[in-house]
Write a structure and sequence with these properties.
single chain, alpha/beta, six-stranded parallel sheet, 6 strands
Length: about 220
C-alpha cells in the first residue's frame, strides 16, 4: 500500500465548527447591515477568513477599506473564539476516534492540514492536540485552499512524499487542494458529491482500512 500518511482537514472533518462560524459572521453582518444567510455561509467552506469576508461583502451596499476589512475580520474572530469556548471532546465528529485508532495501529502517520488560524486552540479544546504527528494551519501558510500549500507543509513536516499521502476533506476547495498537491483525496460530508475525489463517503463512520489499499 502506498499511503503512509493521512492529512485531515479540521473543520467539518475532525470537529464541526460550522455553526460557530455562521453565528459569528451572522452577528457581525447584522451589525453592519449586510445580508448573510446559511446559503452564503456554504460558500465559505475551506477558504480563509479574509476570503470569506470578501464573499460576505459582495452583499454590502458600500466599499470597505482594507483597514475596515481587517477590523471586521478581527471582530468576527474574537466572537468566534468566544463561541469556541463551548467546545468539548463531545464535539469530535462520529467515526473520527475509531479512524485515528485504526491508522495509529497500522503505523500510518496522521496530521492536520487546516486553513484555520484557530487550529491549535480548537485541538486543545477537544483534547486532540497531542494526538497528531504534525499540524499545518493558517498561521504557517501564505495561500489558502484550493492552493495545496497547507497540505504540502504537513507532508514536509511528516517527511512523507505527497504521492504517499491521503487528504480527508469536506470542502470542494480542499479536494482541489489535495489533488493539486499530488495527493489522494477522501471526500466526506458536503464534499462527498465531488467526483474528482479518489474516495467518497458521507461520514468517517463508513471508513475501513481496506479503503486505502484500493486508492
Amino acid at each position: 500500500m502506498s499511503i503512509k500518511a493521512v492529512i485531515f482537514d479540521l473543520d467539518g472533518v475532525i470537529v464541526s465548527t460550522d455553526n460557530y462560524h455562521y453565528r459569528a459572521w451572522k452577528k457581525i453582518s447584522d451589525e453592519e447591515g449586510i445580508y448573510f444567510d446559511r446559503k452564503i455561509n456554504e460558500r465559505l467552506r475551506g477558504v480563509s477568513r479574509m476570503e470569506s469576508l470578501d464573499i460576505i461583502l459582495e452583499k454590502a451596499n458600500r466599499e470597505y477599506s482594507q483597514e475596515e476589512k481587517n477590523s471586521f475580520a478581527e471582530r468576527k474572530n474574537s466572537l468566534y473564539r468566544n463561541l469556541l469556548e463551548e467546545l468539548t471532546q463531545n464535539d469530535i465528529l462520529p467515526g473520527v476516534m475509531r479512524v485515528l485508532e485504526i491508522l495509529k495501529k497500522n503505523d500510518i502517520k496522521v496530521a492536520i492540514g487546516s486553513s484555520s488560524k484557530n487550529t491549535e486552540f480548537i485541538l486543545r479544546k477537544i483534547g486532540l492536540h497531542e494526538y497528531f504527528d504534525a499540524i499545518s494551519d493558517g498561521t504557517q501558510i501564505k495561500n489558502s485552499k484550493p492552493d495545496p500549500e497547507v497540505f504540502l507543509v504537513a507532508a514536509k513536516k511528516l517527511c512523507i512524499e505527497p504521492r504517499d499521502c491521503l487528504v480527508v476533506e469536506d470542502a470542494d476547495a480542499g479536494v482541489e487542494a489535495g489533488l493539486a498537491g499530488g495527493m489522494k483525496v477522501l471526500a466526506v460530508g458536503y464534499a462527498s458529491r465531488n467526483r474528482k475525489a479518489n474516495l467518497r463517503m458521507e461520514s468517517l463512520e463508513q471508513f475501513k482500512y481496506e479503503d486505502m489499499i484500493t486508492v
